[in-house]
Amino acid sequence: MSAGGSTAAPVTDPTGLAERFADLWVAVTRAGGAVGFAPDAPETDIRELAARTLDEVRRGRLHMIALDGLAGAVFLQPGAGPVVAHRATVLRLMVAPQRQRRGLGGLLLAAAVDRARELGFDQLLLSARGGTGLPEFYRLQGWTEVGRFPRALRVGPDDVRDEHWFQLDL
Ligand SMILES: CC(C)(COP(=O)(O)OP(=O)(O)OC[C@H]1O[C@@H](n2cnc3c(N)ncnc32)[C@H](O)[C@@H]1OP(=O)(O)O)[C@@H](O)C(=O)NCCC(=O)NCCS
């Protein structure tokens, strides 16, 4: 999927992407992005999870969509087990800080939705950190907020956030 000279496309083999993907995740985290870590999380922890994430892609347990040579990424995690096999969870949507707010996050998310349809899923779920602009971003992308877990995220010792849950029927 392309728009404004940018392309978001599935990555089937992530070999050779480890360093660039870890750099992206570290930069997004340091800029305050809500992708699993507090802004001051140790870099080694982020790099380790980045490597494990690509390993899951290699094993076929996660589907990856990347933007323009890894200026952004997003993942689909299929439901594990027969009762949830019809759905997937959208994880780790991120765009490089210097390229945010230009429609690229929307492009990546739309490409993830397309890929989910291609893979045969009927439903997508995701969660977003409260106290950020993210719930509004997902509402604007056409997702439905179906509830929230109060105080479910501990971003820091004195920084506790709600987790907002969103759903999209395909
Ligand atoms: C979330 C993210 C992927 C969105 O990508 P993006 O390219 O910045 O978003 P788009 O340009 O497609 O859409 C932005 C629009 O969403 C809405 N929005 C509101 N608050 C926002 C926020 N904090 N971040 C992004 N969009 C926000 C606005 O309408 C905004 O339009 P505007 O810039 O004209 O005000 C990107 O900001 C990012 O990587 N953030 C850090 C990682 C992160 O927190 N990921 C969320 C995982 S749940």
Automatic annotation (TrEMBL):
Origin superkingdom: Bacteria
Any Pfam family matching the protein: Acetyltransf_1
Alphabetical list of InterPro entries matching this protein: Acyl_CoA_acyltransferase, Bact_Acetyltransf, GNAT_dom
Keywords: Acyltransferase, Transferase
PROSITE patterns assigned to the protein according to its UniProt record, in alphabetical order: GNAT (PS51186)
Domain N-acetyltransferase residues, every copy: 9-167
Protein name (Swiss-Prot/TrEMBL): GNAT family N-acetyltransferase
Species annotation: Pseudonocardia xishanensis
